[in-house]
Amino acid sequence: MDRRRRKSREAIFAAFSELLSKKNFSQITVGEIIEHADIGRATFYSHFETKDYLLKELCEELFCHIFDSTKEHGHTHRHIFDCDAPDSVFLHLFQHLSRNDNHILDLLSSQNNDLFLRYFKVGLVDLIESQLETFEIRIPAELPRNFLVNHIAATFVETVRWWVENKMQESPELITKYFFLVIH
Amino acid sequence: MDRRRRKSREAIFAAFSELLSKKNFSQITVGEIIEHADIGRATFYSHFETKDYLLKELCEELFCHIFDSTKEHGHTHRHIFDCDAPDSVFLHLFQHLSRNDNHILDLLSSQNNDLFLRYFKVGLVDLIESQLETFEIRIPAELPRNFLVNHIAATFVETVRWWVENKMQESPELITKYFFLVIH
DNA sequence: ATTTTTATTGAACAATATGTTCAGTAACGA
DNA sequence: TCGTTACTGAACATATTGTTCAATAAAAAT
């Protein structure tokens, strides 16, 4: 990608992220994004069709990164069972979040956290779907697999929500413990 | 309240609900609402400051109604333990939803279901908070009460979401069973 | 080093949406 | 019947959106 194009794109993402951490998505205007990113109006529209697509691409950048890195871990963990915690895919996710790369936490703590948690959950469902059998969870036979996968993903997301709403005072390890207490 | 005022208010709610079941909240304009409700522009703004407040008041009308009715049930159930299912506060909620009063289901099935489920969850948290001790759920001592309440409410909401996404093929009784399988 | 390709700019543009104002009219309640 | 309250519809200023275009500058290719 052309360097100029990459710089514009990054400037838009940075400006948009900062605005999102301060005010509501629906109240953010394209004009504001342009102003903060310090680019021309036509440039913005040459990159993103609408504000919604911008959000979508931002989420993909943020979360694909997380899931890719945990999937690598997941693959090793799946086979190496002498690891400290066999369930640590989730621990890794919590740790990853608490490191606050790409200012994810600022976004998850903002008024717009629903927007991000929704995207996050979709990725989680895929991850859990593909690894459900490796989890040490007793699966009631009467329960649709589908339902259980959704439940685990949703519980994880809600745990994250609770965590950030409580200013993230707990360690990733403790949060992981809470998570498994309600899942098992 | 003046009959004219009540009629305008109802017309706005009806028009707004219908629009919400068809298209995205952010894409609905005040102009459209006015047109469908068949009222003057100034009338709309004499009732609701913004589209967001309109949504808020609509949610309150919808859900206060549900919670009020289940709280009455809850109070009786709390003391009458020869009832078929002592946990039936949740069964009642599922049944109430499936009756589709006020077209709640249309709204919960729409693209905007997040908006409503968010409001719904807030009411649920209050309900569960006040009745947690009456539930037959073993409470791990290490878990903050706060966390558990949020988890139960979130699980209920996610169960509803799963249900409506799957076209509500299951009976309220079966859904209640799924719910308790993952909660207990 | 020169040429070609590509991206950005800024301004102008029409189209749409927002929220307010006001005088006239109709419905309400007492 | 009379005073009050609500609705109307049009007009209004303002803000936002998304597009267009010619000029300019940076990057890539030769």
Description:
Two copies of one chain form a homodimer. Chain A is built from nine helices and no strands. In chain A, helix 4 crosses helix 5 and helix 7 crosses helix 8 (145-165). By secondary structure, chain A is mostly helical. The longest helix of chain A has 29 residues, at 51-79. Chain A is 73% helix and 0% strand. Chain A has two domains: 1-48, Orthogonal Bundle (Arc Repressor Mutant, subunit A); 51-183, Orthogonal Bundle (Tetracycline Repressor, domain 2), CATH 1.10.357. Chain A is elongated and about 55 Å long. Chain A binds chain B through residues 26, 114, 118, 140, 142-144, 146-148, 150-151, 154-155, 158-159, 161-162, 166, 177-178, 181-182, and chain B through 26, 114, 118, 140, 142-144, 146-148, 150-151, 154-155, 158-159, 161-162, 166, 177-178, 181-182. Chain A binds a DNA duplex (30 and 30 nucleotides) through helix 1 and helix 3.
